[in-house]
Amino acid sequence: MKCVTLLSNAQIEVQEKPIPSFKEDECLVKIAYAGICSSDIPRAFMHKAYFYPLVMGHELSGTVVEIGSDVQNFNINDKVTLFPLLPCNTCSQCVLNQYQRCSSYQYYGSRCDGGYAEYLAVKKWNLLKLPAAISLKDAALFEPSAVVVNALRKIVFTNKKVLVIGAGFMSRILLDLFKDNPKEVFIADRNVDKLTSMPKNVQEIHIGDQENIDKFLKNYRDYFDVVFELTGSKEIVPLTIQVAGANSKIILVGNVSGDVNIPEKLFSSILRKELSIKGTWNSTFYHSPSDDWHTVMEHMKNTFFPSKHVSHYINLEDVPVFLEKIHKRREFPLSPTYVKGLIKIDYNT
Ligand SMILES: [Zn+2]
Ligand SMILES: [Zn+2]
User: Fold this and answer.
1) Which of 61, 119, 125, 329 could lock 139 by a disulfide, CB 3.0 to 4.6 Å apart?
2) What is the distance between the alpha carbons of residues 153 and 97, in angstroms, rounded to a whole number?
3) Which domains are seen in the chain, by residue range?
4) Is the pTM of this model over 0.70?
5) 298 phi and psi, to 5 degrees?
6) How many angstroms does the Cα of residue 217 sit away from the middle of ligand 1?
């Protein structure tokens, strides 16, 4: 089979490998689509991989083609997606079904091989069978959607002034999944080109340079009831504290890159404003209608189609060049300028 292998930092190659064998508690899944996650860029180019060689890819959908002898609830040709985290099942959080907080886990596409490949052997525990109403394109985006659902659970929006910082794919699905009825919604980004085709009721704020930021702060210091931080930028995190109003909540979603420096006076304002700062990590998956993945499934059966926000469809063979382009932020010929790639794994070429 074909797969894309990270051989060492910044060395990515399309390879030919044997189709993986599968254990009695696994299904062999023929991958249909794989989402390119922004976390794959530091993994591939900034020494963030746990080991080499690694096949990345954790946002996946596909079809069951082989079934292990200890698998009961799946059939050949079932359409599936998969929760990529393989928990230890023994730590304090695993026993509470909070597997996303497991202290010692494996992960398809980062801590073990993933789905930038034609086939992947997947534990039955991790598989989620798809109803016919959900397309394989949307199904590959269960993972980022579930991360958003987990973040949205932290807050009630009714009558709140909400700021979302970062205007990429995750923010777009976050706006799609806003539950109750916020009073005002703003979205901010440093890249003005990303602030395109937002929903009508969302006000766009450009924070590209210090002048923009000063202007923003002049009007909106201590203003918002809820601030979502999705960029993970060390410069942006302090800004969330400045624009958060008294008794407000800051939800940290973006995985931070670099050390965040919070000056004394700003830190003190966390206390004075009695802010709540809440981290959110990954998503819940415990085979119940109340977990994040089943919540996403209900949304996808209705009006939630995250694949509409995909900016680029590419073939498996093009992944090395495409990742390099994202890393170097080369101009992309297509709009919008934020990048959410979906790899179509094509078996006939
Ligand atoms: Zn991801
Ligand atoms: Zn655990």
Assistant:
1) 61
2) 17
3) 2-146+283-344 (3.90.180.10), 155-279 (3.40.50.720)
4) yes
5) -60, -45
6) 31
